[in-house]
Amino acid sequence: MKPIQTFIKGAATVSLLAFSVFSANAAIQPVAGDFQADHFSAKVVSVDQKNHVVVLEGEQGNKVSLTVPKEAGTLANLKAGDTVDTTVTRSVAVAFDTNVDKAAPTASSTEGTEKATKESPSHEAFRQVNVQLKIKHIDLQKNEVTFVGPKGQEKVVTVEDPKVQARLKDFKVNQSVRVTYTDSIQVVARPAAK
């Protein structure tokens, strides 16, 4: 298995299993999470190798012209009639740290790509962003929490999930909230049937 595939699958798994990992540490409590995967297929209408432009036709016959970044790798394997399968996954894991007066809010990100080559027509990329926020204010009547971000910006979030609303009374000002976003994309070209 390619290193990037291993990371993408691992990142999605980590995000999905974040609650298990977070709850293994008594000071970290899972709050919320989500995972979404979408798959799209399109037929290649034309390929402009020089300008890195591909025209695709969707299942309903609508056409779209895309400029493919050079970072995605070669378009040498792609030709009219081929099918391009794209899978996009997104996940979010949220947990709060029960220890008060932890470190200041932070943000970090990791990303990587696996370029398409003549030997391997698939392109894969991922991005994972980790943000640690501080709770500044909790309004139990309105189910709102005010967070302070890494650059000192404040954001008021209305909690709509009844399960999380029930837990708001356990939150404390200055607790840290950790949010992990993971996005990945895999694009695979399949040659047209001969």
Would you give an account of this structure?
The protein is mainly β and 194 residues long. Helices cover 14% and strands 53% of the residues. It has three helices and nine strands. The protein has helices at 3-16, 18-24, 162-167; strands spanning 28-48, 53-57, 63-67, 83-100, 106-114, 122-139, 144-148, 154-158, 175-190. Strands 1, 2, 3, 4, 5, 6, 7, 8 and 9 form a nine-stranded antiparallel β-sheet that branches. Strand 6 and strand 7 (144-148) form a beta hairpin. The model is unreliable at 3-26 (pLDDT under 50).
Rough outline: elongated
Please work out how many helical segments DSSP would assign: 3
Secondary-structure element series = HHEEEEEEEEHE
Give the termini separation.
28 Å
Return Rg in Å.
21 Å
Strand composition percent: over 45%
Average of pLDDT:
78
Largest sheet: 9 strands, antiparallel
Overall strand count: 9
Low-confidence stretches: 3-26
Helix-strand category: mainly beta
Secondary-structure blueprint:
Elements: H1 3-16, H2 18-24, E1 28-48, E2 53-57, E3 63-67, E4 83-100, E5 106-114, E6 122-139, E7 144-148, E8 154-158, H3 162-167, E9 175-190
Antiparallel strand pairs: 1-2, 1-4, 2-3, 4-9, 5-6, 6-7, 6-9, 7-8
